[in-house]
Every structure is written in structure tokens, then in C-alpha cells.
């Protein structure tokens, strides 16, 4: 159990770091385009909301009294949300070229920040998926152990004094 606790802690820290980077980069873009219509920025607003939810839940589940393995449905929900946000940004019609073209990414322009946002969003989604799988596996393992222990307590036989 110690290994799964350490792994869960590392995944939560990664989720927090990656969603914080996404929120910062995306928030900077939203601030720069604050005078344009909200209709043209709606996908970026969605990304900011998902990043905020990711930060909130990763901080909540980092607390030591929170049983982090019971929250795997929320991690699965955040994985789906971040993948939808990734898809929305990947198909954004912008003049930055292909999302998968990483040449010249260190120039520091708006396209570089946009591609960095997409990359960190993808990494955050992978961490949410890994955390959901780990939580599901640990909770399933715990139920199976409890069921097996109850079944083997009588060694598969009825007691001589019980009528069934």
C-alpha cells in the first residue's frame, strides 16, 4: 500500500503542476483577448474552467485525510474533460500551423505558448487517466480481498451446528 500511496501522491502533484501551467498560459491568452467577443473565446474559457477544476480537485485530494483511491470517478471525469479541451484546442483554426509541428518552439511567440498549452493539457490528461486507473485498481483490489476473506473464513464448509 505504501507504493500505491506514493504513486498516487506523485500523480496528484503532476496533475496540479500541469493544470497550473495550462491555467496560467491560457489565462494569459484570455487576458490579452479580453476586449474581443466571448463567442470567439469560448473554447479557451472551457479550457480555463477544466484547468481550474483540475487544480481544485488535485489540491483537495492531496490532503492527507482524503482517501485518494475513492475519487477515481472524478479523475475519470477530469480525464474526459481535459481530452475534450485538448481536442478543442488542437482543432482551433489558428495561423500557427500544425499542432504536431514543434520546430522553432523556443522563439517565445504566441504560437509557442499555444502549443505549450496543448502539450501540458495532454500531459495533465494522461496523469488524470493514470490516477483514475490506479484508484479503480486499488478500490477493486480492496473489495476482492474483503470478499475472499469472508468466503474463506469458514474454509468453504458449513459448521456442524448450523442447519441450512
Automatic annotation (TrEMBL):
InterPro entries in alphabetical order: Marvel
Start and end residues of each MARVEL domain: 8-134
Organism encoding this protein: Cadophora malorum
Transmembrane segments: 45-66, 114-138
Subcellular location: Membrane
Pfam family name, one: MARVEL
Protein name, as recorded: MARVEL domain-containing protein
One GO location term (cellular component): membrane
Keywords: Membrane, Transmembrane, Transmembrane helix
Bilayer topology: Multi-pass membrane protein
Signal sequence range: none
